[in-house]
Amino acid sequence: MSFLSTRRTGRRAARRFTGRDLAVIGVLLGIPVLLDVAVVWGPTLASVVLSFTGWDGIGDIKWVGTQNYENLFTNYPQFWPAARHNLLWLAFLGLVAAPFGLLLAVLIDRGVRFSRFYQSTLYMPVVLSLAVVGFIAQLVFSRDQGALNAVLGDTDSPTDWLGDPDLNIWMVLLAAAWRHTGYVMILYLAGLKAVDPSLKEAAAIDGAGEAQTFFRVVLPTLRPVNVIVGVITVIESLRAFDIVYAVNHGRNGLELLSVLVTDNIIGEASRIGFGSAIAVVLLVVSLGFVATYLVQELRGEKNR
Amino acid sequence: MTVQAAPARPVAPPAPPVPAARRRIRPGRIGVHAFLMAVSLAFLAPLLLAVYASLRPYDETSEHGYFSLPRHLSLDYYRQAFSDSGMTKYFVNTMIIAVPGVLVTLFLASFVAFALARLRMRGGLVLLMFFTAGNLLPQQVIVTPLYVVFNRIPLPYWMSDSMTMYDSYWAVVVVQIGFQLGFCVFVLANFMRTLPQEILEAAIVDGAGVWTQYWRITLPLCRPALAALGTLQFTWMYNDFLWALVFISDGDKLPITSALNNLRGQFFTDYNLLAAGSVIVALPTLVVFLLLQRHFIAGLTLGASKG
Lengths: 304, 307
Description:
B: 15 helices
């Protein structure tokens, strides 16, 4: 009954917008939509279009078809290492940092003492700018003065953690994980607090061990959080830029797709078309994940 | 089901499960504490190291390393950062970008969220997806066309001394707002759905227009969500590094996070100065976090756990 009546008032209200109401809606909905088109979706489309041109930003826009992509895949030596580093970034955050964050959340959620202290400390790196994380990483990993080498006491042939192109990506990943773990932890903590305790009790009564209860009962109820964590992890790994840029502008073993885009447009060469092609590669990968996420959301909305 | 369970919950669980859990965990509890303490210290260590390094002269750390005992401790680097490198100016620049950025974002996003959650419009879901998906794209996808376009938009001198949108605060502010709208719309729409519809209906019966329903009735109820989002958004805009790096070329206009890069010399980097700079940049966000921790975490989890 009450459901029906709210439906009806809602509909009547919708029909009863006055001219002033329509003006308010038009302006206040129009501005954000236009802004989003101008700043996000328009440029996204433009990137796709520009990626098929050989434009340098000044002269005429020349149509070159898929030539940028062919160049990108076949004779741009930085591309594949950069793509590999982005994948590695995703794997490291997804398989190491995120599970570690979950583990910390589970431990803290058991109601140990000082849990607020642990929670605040572990979360603190998240409020730092990624650029600051990059600079702090240099203090820890620098070859001659860094804290790590001082702790290792290796003074004769110190390891150049950030200079060695085989090693530095791992060090940067550690720095990225430092920040990502806390983020994931706080999301899972909120999720775990919302889990109905009677579920766990029921599982315990049925004779399930702690590990079994967690993996079979608790984790499945955390599905919405898992989805969010997954999305954040993917987005963070595709966006990764600040840390490597702060360390060495993304060179010498720290190439990332985002760095290549930035280099191609604000560098001296100003190869807008080519830079856009790299951006489109990023776009295609991220759209795959974004679409999956939105489909999930849509389902949730319909069940609401 | 859930309705039946709800009234019982506040009475029963808070007391019994804790002792039960404690008793069960007891043997491993010390281990858990040791582990959490070790991880916490490991997480704190880099920050403490940065503070420690910033207090010591370069000669000393270059000779003995960062991990040595201090011989001189001073705030010289902080003085240098503020006097020679003009950190104050960069702080002001950040405020010029972040304060209008946060306010306008919250205002626009809250109306869109209100329209989506409360005004049963057709295509609401599409609009929600339009905004949310926009926030999830990597910044590099949109940076190139924006860079080109901003270079071509002329602005009068009183708005930008570069006479174009490029190299002006306007570019950064507009992009920040446009890019962050999606997240705020998503969070606020979820929050507004949890508000009781009856209050709004009463207002409609009294003849309140859309603006009154939004500004007088819905927004005051959203204060907790707005506080949480405001805290979070301010930190994000403050921490942003890329937009200013790409859209501003005049070093004097850089916000503080991007300006940090300038403390690095062309040929020689004084890492202790860089440490002081990092601490200066990090300090406001850490203070905001410690003071408004509740809001901060609420902002993130509101987005994650639907209201």
